[in-house]
Each structure stands twice: as structure tokens, then as C-alpha cells.
């Protein structure tokens, strides 16, 4: 991250934490949750008390805000809650509904390339249906093609997975109707000269040990290919590695190889190969600052 971006991320995290943590009477909390003190310090008790509301606030404001700050370092058009709408062939809309319905019923396995081929080949007649999807994060000038992301908890329920799948297929079908070449990946030679392309490649290779597994590395390499990109993105991965991820609903509905970004993949994808590591460093800095400030106020 550039210095200004790092400073802005630091300020966003600290402001969010300070505004989110209410001032509880610590002694009352200790009496209310006596056994929690086996595991948590005083700040931890406050966080545990507010866990549900904190998780909701983080999903609604913190993660999208961080994504905008990080992506804006490289891209000029980063929009949160971007509305994408237009008219799509009615038969294609019906095919998307059918695919999602079959996935929910376990009557087929997820395969993005196959699904898109079926959606596009299903077009018939002149009837149109107006469709509308909202991207949690949308980057119109993303390397070679627009970037669409649904930001969700890493263990979404079946309804959320199905809704995200429908949005991804609808978004890509809509853009393909408007621009037939929008979903045909090819090397992005126009966005960087050969020397820059080599620099990117070797930078990724040099940092490969930092990636949870080889699939994460391959994902970052794919970001340098032209084509519309649409994902279900998780802000973090509680399973740590992609290969260990085992949440059943996600795997039932989503093509894990081409439709899902997990934690580090997402943050590095919209930033660079060190973004996630730097984000962890800043989180530690902010947490230490808040704890020191709370300790000094008690003295």
C-alpha cells in the first residue's frame, strides 16, 4: 500500500473500533460474564458482549469501506452498492432460474463455464425481462474488464449462496448481451508493457510462499487476464487455506475455482500481492493503540 492508503486504512479501522465499542462498566461485565474472564481481557469482554452487532456493522460498513480505500489506490472508478440493470432475453433469465433451482436441489454440480454456455445458448424469441443486480463492490476499470463482487460471510446459508449465484450469472449474461467479447478471457497485453508483465509475474512468484496454497497463487495470476470478473467474495477465510474450506452450502452452489474469492485472494486481488499482509499489520497496530489508550484512561 502507498503511505496515504495505509494511513487511511489505519484511520478507518481505528474510527470504526472506537465508535463501535460502547463504554460498559467493566466490573458489571465481570459479574455478568464471570467465566469469560478465563479467556478475555477487559477489551475482549466488551467485544464479546457486542459480538452480534459488531459482526453486522463490519459487514455493512467496515469491509466495503476498506475495499474501496484499497481498490481506489489502483483504480479510478470504484463504486459500492453499484446497481447494474438492463433488459435480458426472457429465456436466458428462465435458464438462470432453472440452474439455481437445480443446484439447490442437488440435481447438478456447479460448473461456471457450462452454466454460462447454457444460459447464452438458451436465448430465443424477442421477449425481454428487465433484470437488476447490485454489486457490493464494483470496479469498472479493473484490469481488462469490470469487476463485480458480492461481499459475504465465509459461511453463508443456502439462500445467500443461491442469490449470489443468480446475481453472478445474471451480471455476466447481461454484459455478454451488451458486449459479446466481455467474457472471453485473453492475455491482458494492452494494460502493461512486456517488462511490466514480467515484473508482475516474478513478483507473484517471489511471494508465492505467502499464499495459502497454489490455487490462491493461480487466482492472482488470473487477475491479469482480460474478461468480466464476478465473484462471491469472503472478507476472511476461517478455514485458513482454500483446500481446507469445507462449508457445504458454498460448495453445493458455487464453482469454487472460478466464482469464489477467499480472504487473502480478495484483498490481494483488488490491491497487490502484499495487501493482505499489510492489512493484518495495520489491524495489530490499531488494536495495540486502542488497548494502550484504554489502559492509560484507567490510570
Write a short abstract of this structure.
The chain is of the alpha/beta class and 299 residues long. The chain has 12 helices and 7 strands.
Describe this structure in words.
The longest helix is centred in the C-terminal third of the chain and has 24 residues, at 275-298. This protein has two domains: 1-74 and 276-299, no CATH class; 76-270, no CATH class. It is of the alpha/beta class and 299 residues long. The chain has twelve helices and seven strands. It has helices at 3-20, 26-32, 42-49, 51-72, 90-104, 112-121, 158-178, 194-206, 214-222, 248-253, 264-270, 275-298, and strands at residues 78-89, 128-139, 147-152, 186-187, 225-226, 229-234, 260-262. Helix 1 crosses helix 12. It starts with a helix and ends with a helix.
What is the overall silhouette?
A: elongated
Q: What is the domain tally?
A: 2
Encode the helix/strand succession as letters.
HHHHEHHEEHEHHEEHEHH
Low-confidence stretches: 186-222
Strand proportion, as a percent range, falls in 5-15%
Residue share in helix: 40-55%
What is the assembly state of the chains in this entry? Answer: single chain
Total helical segments: 12
Q: Indicate the mean pLDDT.
A: 85
Which radius of gyration do the C-alpha atoms yield? 22 Å
The main sheet comes to: 5 strands, mixed
Helix-strand blueprint:
Blueprint: H1 3-20, H2 26-32, H3 42-49, H4 51-72, E1 78-89, H5 90-104, H6 112-121, E2 128-139, E3 147-152, H7 158-178, E4 186-187, H8 194-206, H9 214-222, E5 225-226, E6 229-234, H10 248-253, E7 260-262, H11 264-270, H12 275-298
Parallel strand pairs: 3-6, 6-7
Antiparallel strand pairs: 1-2, 2-3, 4-5
Helix pairs in contact: 1-4, 1-12, 5-6, 5-7, 6-7, 9-11
